[in-house]
Each structure stands twice: as structure tokens, then as C-alpha cells.
Amino acid sequence: MRPLLYFCSALVVMAMAFWAYRENYATQKALRELAALQDSISGLREDITMQKAEWAYLNRPTRLKELATANFDRLHLMPLEPEQMADGKTVAFPAPVLTLDAPGALTAGTARPATSASAGMLTITASADTAGEITSKPGDKAFP
């Protein structure tokens, strides 16, 4: 019985040695792949840094102004002036949306696309006149 126990113990030790050998080489391979990936990442980061520097160099305001002046006859580009900027009060906002969430409950919100979550809701885009009455156009009705 003892020789069988020695034999089984030797087999277990050899199996464990084989497993440790394979794991060692698998770990070394994974470390080599990791080092290669890190080298690749650092190279890509250097490329990105170089491209950002080139982009900044090519988009210098003086260079762009010279290019716009040189190509004015083809592009008709004019320099931006502060007077060309719009005031926030002149921005056209979307029309309010009235939603019938529950029977008899009318809520106001902003325009949003119909989604599966809003299925079954009646959405009417309308505008309110000065008397407080709601007016709508036939094309403004949306039935999801």
C-alpha cells in the first residue's frame, strides 16, 4: 500500500510541476504582450501629441488670415467681427409641447422626439396667443 501512495504522490508532484511550468510560460507571454501594448500606446500618444502640435501650427490665426486673404476670390471668406455675433434674445427656441400625461392633466414642456417610453402619449405642438388660448396648426399634431 505504501508504494502505491509513493507513486500517487510522485504523480501529483509531477502534475503540479507541469502545471507550474505552463503557468510560468503563460505569465511570461502575457507580460511580453503587455509590454508590447504599452510600447504601442506610448507610440500612439506621441503621434497624437505631434498631430495636436501640427493642428495648432496650421490653425494659427495669422496663417488662416493670410490664407483667407489669398483665396478671397474663390472662397469669399470675411473675418469675424464682434458685431456679427447674435444676442441671446434673438435665438429662436423650439415651440412648447403640451403633453396629456393622465386623463385631464395637461403639462407643458419642450419638444422631444417620440420614443418607446412616450408611446401611448398624445403630444401636440402648439403656441399660445396673447389671450391665453391655445392655437395649433394641422401639421403640428404628433401621435406616437
Report on this model:
The protein folds into 2 domains: 2-61; 88-142, no CATH class. Helix content is 49%, strand content 15%. It has helices spanning 2-58, 61-70, 72-75, and strands spanning 97-102, 105-109, 122-125, 127-128, 134-135, 141-142. The strands form 2 sheets. It has a 4-stranded antiparallel beta sheet with strand order 2-1-3-6, with no helix packed on it. A two-stranded antiparallel sheet has the order 4-5. The radius of gyration is 36 Å and the shape is elongated. Mean pLDDT is 78; it is low at 114-119 and 140-144.
Q: Which descriptors apply to this entry?
A:
single chain; 144 residues; alpha+beta; 2 domains; 4-stranded antiparallel sheet; two-stranded antiparallel ribbon; 49% helix; 15% strand; elongated
